[in-house]
Amino acid sequence: MSSHQTEVSSSTGITLVTLQNCPSNMAALAEVFTRIAAMGINVDMISLSPNLGSTMAVSFTISDEDLGEILKFTSKLLETSKIKTIVSSGNCKINVYDENMVNTPGMAARVFSAAAHVAPDLRIITTSDVDISILVTEAEFESTLQAISQAMQDGAES
């Protein structure tokens, strides 16, 4: 029996920003995130959609506290480009971390199956070798967190 345990953590007060019609090149992406960093805004989850010709959509999360600043930024983007913005605040992130996830088939299936029982309005999912992060609406946060936590606990016991 291993001595590690899967950790489930969460955070609230998260805004999801989606930029549609972004040029699909690294220079444009770097410029967007450089400008956001210069505003002192910390970006957390980042997800890109597949390219649609010469454009793509990029979604990222920030703290609800930075909503006013990001809206100033996205307004400027709209004035100077064809980038359209969708902003959704009041979301919550559930993070599942396990250092052995990289060598454990089925972790995503377990997390997604647990969430499916609650059927939350998923906003964005990001992953790495050792974690899975899911952004859900505040209304579905507690039930989704509870379902995922229970599934991770049950998985650790089996």
Task: Estimate percent helicity.
Answer: 25-40%
CATH architecture tag of the largest domain: 2-Layer Sandwich
Order of helices and strands: EHEEHEHEEH
The CATH class of the largest domain? Alpha Beta
Instruction: Report the principal-axis shape.
Output: elongated
* Quantity of strands, as a count: 6
What does this structure look like?
- The protein has 158 residues and is an alpha+beta fold.
- It has two domains: 7-11 and 91-157, VC0802-like, CATH 3.30.2130; 15-88, 2-Layer Sandwich (Alpha-Beta Plaits).
- 37% of the residues lie in helices and 35% in strands.
- It has four helices and six strands.
- It has helices spanning 26-38, 67-80, 107-118, 138-157, and strands at 7-23, 46-48, 55-63, 84-97, 122-127, 131-137.
- The protein has a six-stranded antiparallel sheet.
- The N and C termini lie close together (10 Å).
